[in-house]
UniProtKB/TrEMBL annotation:
Keyword RNA-binding: no
Alphabetized SUPFAM superfamilies for the sequence: Dimeric alpha+beta barrel (SSF54909)
Name by which UniProt lists this protein: Antibiotic biosynthesis monooxygenase family protein
Pfam families for the chain: ABM (PF03992)
Coiled coil: none
Organism: Nocardioides kribbensis
Keyword Calcium included in the entry's annotation: no
Keywords from the named record: Monooxygenase, Oxidoreductase
Single GO molecular function: monooxygenase activity
Lineage summary: Bacteria, Bacillati, Actinomycetota, Actinomycetes, Propionibacteriales
Domain of life: Bacteria
Amino acid sequence: MIVVNRFRVAPEEQGSFRVALETARDALAARPGHVGATIGRNVDDPGLWVLTTRWENVGAYRRALSSYDVKLHAVPVLYRALDEPSAYEVVEPGTDLNVERTRSLG
């Protein structure tokens, strides 16, 4: 699975935000099931940043978010993400896609 978190960052915060985002990426990267991560900044709008992470599955990502180190070093940065859906399934030839339906809580 892929998680895409976008951030709007003021010019005066760019340096400190970059350090915080790198720390968040490293905390996530230390968790089981993490496959890779990329930090990017938009070339046309330098105030727009992105953290893209790849995970073995959605469970690995959700378990990573509950770890102490991630709560301490990544969650404060992730709270700054733009309010939009961030989790995506990988679409490859022959894969079955998630079916949109109401899920049971029990």
